[in-house]
Amino acid sequence: MPFVKPDHYLLDSGRRRLLRNGEVVALGDRAFDLLLALAGAGGKALSADELTALVWPGLTVSAGNLRVQVRALRKALGDEAVENVPGAGYRLTLPLDPLSTDAGAPPVPALVGRDGDLNRLRELLARSRLVSIVGPGGVGKTCLALAGAAACEGLRVAHVELAPVRQPGLVPVVTAAALAIRVQKVDVIDSIREALAAQPTLLVMDNAEHLLDEVGEFAENLLCTCPDLHLLLTSREPLNISGELLFNLCPLTCPPEGEAEPAIIRSYPAVALVLRNHAQAGWPPLTDDQMPALAQLCRQLDGLPLALVLLAAQLRDCAVVDVSAALEGRLQHLPLEGTARYRHDSLARMLDWSFDLLSDDERLLLSRLAVFNGSWPVAAAVAVCGQPPLLPAMVPGLIAGLVSRSLVAGPLQRQAPGLRLLETIRQYVIARDPGLIAREGLNHALMSWLLVALDQYHTLSERVGTGRAELLADMADIREILDWGFAGHDIHRAQELVIDTLRIWNLQGLYTESARYFIRAWEACDDTTHPALRGAIGMLLYGEGVPLQLPHHQQRPWYLKHEFDRNLAGLRAHIDSHHRWFINSAVSAGWLLRYNGDFQAGQALWEEAEAICAAYGFDYTRSSTLSMIGWAAANKGDFEKARRSFELALSIGEEIGFYHSLAALRMAEMEFAAGDHDRAVAVARRTLTEAPQLTQAIKQTLHANLASYLVVKGDMVAALHEALTALRLQLRYQYTYSIGWTLDRGALIATRLGQRALAADLMVGAEAFITSENLTREGPEQVIHQLLRAELGEITGEALPSEQLLQKLLAFYEGTVATHNGV
Predict the structure, then answer these.
(1) N or C: which end of the chain has fewer CB within 10 A?
(2) Which residues lie below 8 Å from residue 536, measured CB to CB, with a gap of 6+?
(3) 603 phi and psi, to 5 degrees?
(4) Strand-pair category, 156-161 with 201-206
(5) Would you give the distance in Å from CA 391 to the centre of its chain?
């Protein structure tokens, strides 16, 4: 008779499964609980009462229930697997091996980007016998817990997987199985206490969020009676019991927007995790040109480790940009091929777990919060989401609950102000009810709140300056609501929002984005547009509202002839209700008139704007307007009036507590125009050093002007460094307005360093650009051009494209600076 190899059984108590020759045996929950109880008896028979107490703790059930589960085990494993011992009960005869010989502890995962977190966890474990790692699903709590547990010397480690436990009363049973305890008595906790007394132990209670009350009572009981026990909990919310220390685990850090250097992108933990998993699968490495797209995907996935692991699995056969396009708006559907190492096989499955634990009110609020694309304060959630059946007064408490459940990221989790839905969670709740946001008018409510928040920001910035005024709104929400409004849902208020956001865009250097929305706002104007609204958009677009050279600037003569007077009249007629619009528009229009050669009319508009600023208490804008008046006076040679204007501008800035960098910049230009070059250099350097916050446009202009001052003084080495810094800023923020002056300055520097051929190309390109844009050289630009003409003479020829010339100039600057630095 041939030899038949016996079946080999492995009991995986952590994942609540039985393996026969590597294949999972189908068992119901109660049948598996019975199997755990019998296995824990170590070959001894347990009575019907003992088994009932273990399998149905706290419940009264008939003897027939036990017989049904015994039959289920025998059917799955064979009649001989469970022996009926007369007068004693039931005994398991089937030999079972535990899946791991180390008290249920799985292999320790290799961590990426978690060195600081691991050190912090070790500190907490040394301070307390109860530490809870809390955070959103998929953030890597289990991996960190197992790594932290492995670093605890002198402690036996047992991993208690609670995710599969769905019925109350089973926490002690699963814990006993993880400890490989032979249960000798009906009171399982007594058996656990006896086992824990034998050896100092760390229990890793993993994924406890759905059993918090039971786990909390279990933990308090054991900690009070087992002095050598330590507990490490992972959950989406804390236990909130005495002695608990919390570790709020955050997602992995992602590259910031705008970072394009492949080596730097690869160094960020979120990207490194994707690349590691991609490489471990044996797939071809991702090339440098794919790194910016990968960085963007990591940001979209919020640096969530599970999401990044799922992403890595998608990059086997597709380029990053293709995966990004395929996942647009569907991040929650990222699948994972083969789930042996992971509890969740998709982000949606993971989030179902959290969503099912919420109350109806919490689910509704979470779904409504998806209207926010960025971060937001509680007040915004109250204003936007506090609609029936939710009351505004209910919203803060509900948000606190969502934060505690790690579904809303608070300041502690974000390590930044405000609250936010992770994008993966946001897309998940939108997918559950795609029409909810439109059905409940949440975009309209968000638009209203954004306009109020911006009004509050502008009011505050006039009192303390833009550098210290806090904007409660998030630019991500502003972008999304503008796109929604201009799609035909709320065009007029989208136009208002464009105007009110101008200062923020300029402050953050988002000039291209600002220009794009202003063009959309102008194109949306029609006969129904409010006259003040149309006037403000036109003046800011055709004037100097956005510091870029725009196609509309070529149409300035048309605008001055057909629109200017009507727009200005519309603004003047509504000064009382729209004084901020008038002031900003008058400042922009002043530049527009100056470009047209009407300096006196431009000056008059600035002085009118300054008077209205004084009347309405617009201190910050008044200071800025006075600096322009001083600059214009300096260009006319009226240095006495210029100094008075600058001194008043700086004085107003001091009164409201901010360093007026724009006034200081123009004062430096005045000192240069007056012939005091040393004073001009000193003022510019002081402003770069001491100003607490500079817009990118002002910073670029300060470095560029300082380079011009130093060139005139003959300090070429220092001038090179300043010119290089200014050029890099110009290219990074696409500050196209200054291209002509940049090329002129570069031509003079190249001439003085013996690069006359390069200088000639730059000079021709500068003249072509300035002529095509109808610009006028003033101040330092005029002086530089005069020196260039004197040293290089008259140069003619065909101009190369500006972009090509800027790159040639950049290479020249970088090479020369490297030579001077001895590189």
Answers:
(1) N
(2) 499, 567, 571, 578, 581, 582, 584, 585
(3) -60, -40
(4) parallel
(5) 29
**C-alpha torsion 230→235→237→240, nearest 10:** -20
In terms of Cα–Cα distance, which of 404, 431, 462 is closest to 622? 462
Beta bridge partners of 17: 12
Q: How buried is 689 (Cβ within 10 angstroms: 0-12 exposed, 13-18 middle, 19+ buried)?
A: exposed
pLDDT at 597: 86
Q: List pLDDT tens digits, range 555-610.
A: 999 999 999 999 999 999 999 999 999 999 999 999 999 888 888 999 999 999 99
Strands (E) across 596-715 are located at none
Q: Among all chains, which residue has been given the structure tokens 């199997």?
A: 35
More confident residue, 106 or 137: 137
Instruction: Write the CB contacts of 344 (distance below 8 Å, at least 6 apart in sequence).
Output: 137, 138, 306, 336, 350, 353
Q: How far apart are CA 518 and CA 510, in angstroms?
A: 12
Q: Can you give the pTM of this predicted structure?
A: 0.68
Count Cβ neighbours within 10 Å for each residue of 387-398 and write b for 16 or more, e otherwise.
beebeeeebeeb
Q: What angle (nearest 5°) sits at the alpha carbon of residue 637, between those of residues 636 and 643?
A: 105
Cα-Cα-Cα-Cα dihedral sign, residues 21, 23, 24, 26: negative
Per the CB < 8 A criterion, the answer to whether 729 and 810 are in contact is no
pLDDT digits over 58-67, tens only? Answer: 567 777 888 8
Tokens of 478: 């502003």
- H helices present in 226-346, as ranges: 262-267, 269-280, 291-300, 305-314, 320-326
pLDDT (average), residues 449-467: 91
> Partners of 97 in the beta sheet?
10
User: 659 versus 458: which is more confidently predicted?
Assistant: 458
User: Could you give the CA distance from residue 694 to residue 593 in angstroms, rounded to a whole number?
Assistant: 27
Residue 237 DSSP label: S
Amino acid 517 reads Y
Single-letter amino acid code for the residue at 442 = L
Query: Is the Cβ–Cβ distance between 265 and 259 less than 8 Å?
Result: yes
Quickly count: other Cβ atoms within 10 Å of residue 168's Cβ. Answer: 12
CB count in 10 Å sphere of residue 782: 15
Residue 182 banded pLDDT, cuts 50, 70, 90? low
pLDDT at 548 exceeding the cut of 90: no
List residues bridging with 203 in a β-sheet. 158, 231
- Count other Cβ atoms within 10 Å, centred on residue 242: 9
Return the residue matching tokens 């502890």.
105
Pull the structure tokens for residue 380: 């915004």
Identity (one letter) of the amino acid at 230?
H
CB 420 within 8 A of CB 409: yes
Q: What residues form DSSP beta bridges with 202? A: 157, 230
Question: What angle do the packed helices 115-127 and 141-150 form, to 10 degrees?
Answer: 60
